[in-house]
Amino acid sequence: MENTAQLVQYILTGITIGAIYALVGLGYNIIYNVTEVINFAQGEFVVLGGLVMVFMTNTLHLSLPVGFFLSVGIVTILGALMDKLTIQPIKNATVLTLIIITIAVSIIFKGLAMLIWGRDPYTLPAFSKAPPFTLFHAIIQPQALWVLGITTVVVILLSLFFRYTMVGKAMLACADSPEASRLMGIPVQRMVLISFVLSAAIGAVAGIVITPISLMEYDRGALLGLKGFGASILGGLGSFSGAVIAGLILGLIESLCAGYVSSGYKDAVALIVLLLVLFIKPSGFFAGKRASLKKF
Amino acid sequence: MEPLLETTGITKHFGGIQALNDITFKVRPGQIKAIIGPNGAGKTTLFNCISGVLKADKGDIKLNGQSITGFPPHKRAQAGISRTFQNVAIFPEMTVLENVLVGRHCRSRCEMLQAGFRTRSMRNEEREIVEKAWNFLEFVGLENQTEKRAGELPLGDQRLLEIARALATEPKIVLLDEPAGGLNTKETERLAELIHQIRDSGITVLLVEHDMNLVMDISDEILVINFGERLAEGNPKSIKSNPDVINAYLGEDIDYSDL
Amino acid sequence: MGYEKKKILCLILFLVIFPVLVNYIPAISNYLEVMIFAGIFCLVTIGLSLLMGYAGQISLGHAAFLGIGAYSSGILTTKFGLSPWLGILAGVALSSAIAVVVGIPSLKLKGHYLAMATLGFGEIVFIVFNEEVDLTGGPSGFADIPYLHIGSFEFTSELTYYILVWSVVLIGLFFALNLIHSRVGRAWKAIHGNELAAEAMGVPTSKYKLKIFVLSSIYASIAGSLYTHYICFLNPSSFDLFWSIKFVMMVIVGGMNSVWGAIIGTVLLTYLGNEWLTAFKHFDVLVYGFILLLITMFLPGGIVSLPEILKSKRTITR
Q1: Which residues neighbour B250 within 8 Å (Cβ) at sequence distance 6 or greater?
Q2: What is the mean pLDDT of residues C72-77?
Q3: Using one digit for the tens of pLDDT, what is the confidence trace for A142-186?
Q4: Distance from C-alpha of A38 to C-alpha of A216, rounded to nearest angstrom
Q5: How far apart are CA C92 and CA C219, in angstroms?
Q6: Whole domain around residue C146: which residue ranges?
Q7: What is the C-alpha separation between A95 and B65, in angstroms, rounded?
Q8: B102 interfaces chain C, CB cutoff of 8 Å
Q9: How far is A91 from chain C (nearest CA, A)?
Q10: Percent of chain C at pLDDT exceeding 90
Q11: Considering its fold, how many domains does chain A have in total?
Q12: Distances (CA, A) of C93 to A6, C101, C218, C222
């Protein structure tokens, strides 16, 4: 009995953290699809989401929904500023320049976080006051359900956005062919802005929901970003469903490895998977036919 | 006579599109041979398969009777196939001289340790590399611009530089991909002369070209391909009067009187 | 040395005068030690500048090679009693072996993918340093690493170590400059300019990309060993991801297209980190971020491109 309880525990922890990787992976995909830029600051959105929420809740004592939307809003503005001030002004940038610029921005975000919150980890109260309950003898934190629920909502909202709204469809068109989209009168620059806004918002949401479980500190961004990138690569860069499946798988592998193999190396597992995918099949394993690699 | 270059049954697909189907042809040493065909016929694809930039799905490529099908591009260069590119692929940030020096790479040997410590053999080899490169720059007439950044040259000179760089590899056969593209009449005349000189120096020339005047003027033999298939092959005279060829070119935007 | 003679002479002159200056100006008395660190980092960035600026490949994981060199030296000398010089050689051997294994699949990737792969690699190595407690001492590290010595002479004083480190840097610089002005360096530049054309002109591109990756890992590994035998104490924090990014930053701030840029950027940023920014303890990360961003956006050629830009501005205003 104890063994099953343990297994269930690991699986649940795995998909909870996997959901976060999925969200980060989605963030990469949205920007990549429109701009073919990999945003190295993606992980920092998650950190900032969590830490701004800490400020809203623990310092300003705002209620959960108010704090949630304000935090997402602030990080979203930062995402928009990042695009307006650093990405848009650069014309004819080489890939290397774009990599360096997004890295520079990620350092700035990290520096800001360190300046404001210092080096200590912070926590948040769980969203609901319900006590942990047991399932197959495993103890389950209600916050895990919040993570999964909110991730599901985000994924559904995103797919509705891309399928049914004009802006969403226009963004997909930009992804297929930026030149043709420009000729068709789609304001590509605005689409780029929206992609940054969206992925900043998604990152912030991920940060807010995970902080009550795993705490948050200023320098978590790089690792979160790398693992999220692992999700988007494993799923096939640019593929939304791929990123979700791959994120959950990565989370599961990580949690099972931490449980049964070595907890010290749990962070390395996701990275080794990332490297293996890059080395063996950089186009990913879960992408549909359409999501093929561009420019790589 | 033994063919210098021989392809048998070259076939290449891109997804569902057949770019080349069963192309078989020969180039004899000392020839100037042209490949022509309407836009999208597969000429550049064929060049890419011969130079190794693309891997053919099927078929065999022989140079001097030896199969080079499995060779990566740099080994084909070593074996004696060099080329220019349709869209001019010089190294824009390097000087004109340096561009040609790179062409000497496969004819020199100094490795990292010798180069890093600048050994005597390295310095001797370097002197020889530079000397040879100068010869090729003089050959195409760029000897007065050697220290310019290659990217700053006008298109005509960039094409000449590309030819010099290709010749610097001391090829047995040089593949020229639309060498007259973007050149004016005078530059094209100069090019025709240059191609003759290349052949006279003992190098076989295979070219893809749209300028029919040039092709008919300089080629010993012409291969016509259309929709990836071999349509006709022969001397310029027979190609001009070939009804299949005329048919294929109908609707193409060229001067029919040239054919 | 047929080329850049003046620059080399200037550098040597500066290196000779510097310790004298430091000796007479009490306000900068600790500058000599900072210069030792700057020299060690210069070794890393000279290699990185060849990799990035000349061959056009990015690595966001070079702190890992610094660490591999450092730990090889540290562990072999402290726990197995080997001579530090053998430790350095062992580090070089291990670094190049790992660089080959990681480089072969990585260098098939381009742009963002290569950046992420090297970033992931660096992070994995960092985790190994933390987790292999028996060997590395884990997060708290280990001490009592011996000094370098020749016979009975030990490199313990700042001045002797300064001379040692910068001599190695000068050798590394000569080697790099010689390479740049050779067929090997031209092959790298050609790969940077147009990989397809380089290959068609007979350059075995994957082999040459691997060569520079391995060479740059050797530079970093030697730097790591020199670092270890100077501070005689090791823990993983000097080899984390932020250090990898800092090295890239040094190369870019100085100017990626020249090894001189790497040296200038490295010395500048080392002083910034160790001296000038210490007053802004909590700002430093932020300042680094802004420096990198502003240089990339407004001075993409780095500091070494300044004279040329000023010159062309002057001719325009005339």
Answers
A1: none
A2: 95
A3: 899 999 999 999 999 999 998 899 888 888 887 777 677 777 778
A4: 23
A5: 8
A6: 30-317
A7: 43
A8: yes
A9: 10
A10: 75
A11: 1
A12: 43, 12, 8, 10
Tokens of A75: 């990080």
Instruction: Assess contact for B109 and C183: CB atoms under 8 A.
Output: no
Residues with Cβ within 8 Å of B50's Cβ and at least 6 positions away in sequence, in order, are B5, B7, B61, B81, B175, B206
Q: Which two tokens stand for residue A224?
A: 């979160």
Check CB contact under 8 Å for A89 and C297.
Answer: yes
With respect to residue A162, please indicate whether it lies within any of the assigned structural domains. yes
Whether the CB-CB separation of A210 and A147 falls below 8 Å is answered with yes
Distance between CA atoms of residues B100 and B90, nearest Å: 10
Query: Nearest residue of A to residue C114 by CA position?
Result: A278
- Do residues B172 and B144 touch, judged by C-beta distance below 8 A? no
The helix or strand, by DSSP H or E, that contains position B254, with its residue range, turns out to be none
- Residue pair B30/B204 in contact by the 8 Å Cβ criterion: yes
For A5-24, how does the pLDDT look when each residue is reduced to its tens digit (9 = 90+)? 888 889 999 999 999 999 99
Q: How far is CA C44 from the centre of its chain?
A: 1
CATH of B1-72+209-259 among 3.40.50.10860, 3.40.50.1470, 3.40.50.300, 3.40.50.2300: 3.40.50.300
Would the CA dihedral through C247, C252, C256, C258 be positive or negative?
negative
Task: Determine, yes or no, domain membership for C8.
Answer: no
Give the burial class of C151: count Cβ atoms within 10 A of its Cβ; 0-12 exposed, 13-18 middle, 19 or more buried: exposed
Q: Using an 8 Å Cβ cutoff, are A242 and A289 in contact?
A: no
Site from B48, B112, B122 to mutate, C interface, most C CB atoms within 10 angstroms: B112
Structure tokens at C314: 């002057």
DSSP string, B3-60: -SEEEEEEEEEETTEEEEEEEEEEE-TT-EEEEE-STTSSHHHHHHHHHTSS--SEEE
β-partners of residue B12 are B20
What tokens does A57 get?
């809740």
Residues A43/A31, Cβ–Cβ less than 8 Å: no
Q: Average pLDDT in the C106-122 region? A: 92
The residues, any chain, with a CB within 8 Å of residue B213's CB and separated by 6 or more, are B258
Residue C138 CB contacts under 8 Å (≥ 6 apart), including other chains: C130, C131, C132
* pLDDT score at B24: 95
- For C240, other C-beta atoms within 10 Å of its C-beta total 22
Which H/E stretch holds residue B150? none
The CATH number for C43's domain is 1.10.3470
Instruction: Give Rg (Cα) of chain A.
Output: 19
The answer as to whether C299 is a domain residue is yes
Q: What is the dihedral of CA C310, C311, C317, C318, to 10 degrees?
A: 160
Q: Predicted ipTM?
A: 0.91
What is the share, in percent, of chain C residues with pLDDT greater than 70? Answer: 97
Across chain A, mean pLDDT equals: 89
Q: How many CB atoms within 10 Å of residue B100?
A: 31
Decide if C297 and A107 are in contact by the 8 Å CB cutoff.
no
Number of domains chain C is built from = 1
User: Dihedrals φ, ψ of B8, to 5°?
Assistant: -130, 120
Distance CA C272, CA C296 (A): 18
Classify strands B81-83 and C153-154 as parallel, antiparallel or unpaired. Answer: unpaired
C-alpha distances (whole Å) from B237 to each of B215, B221, C299 are 11, 9, 59
Q: Which residue on chain C is closest to B166 by alpha carbon?
A: C201
Q: Which amino acid is at C98?
A: I
In this prediction, residue B252 carries a pLDDT of 56
Partners of C193 on chain B (C-beta within 8 Å) are: 90-94
Closest CA to B224 of B90, B38, B93, B55: B38
* A101-116: average pLDDT: 94
CB contact under 8 A, C198 and B91: yes
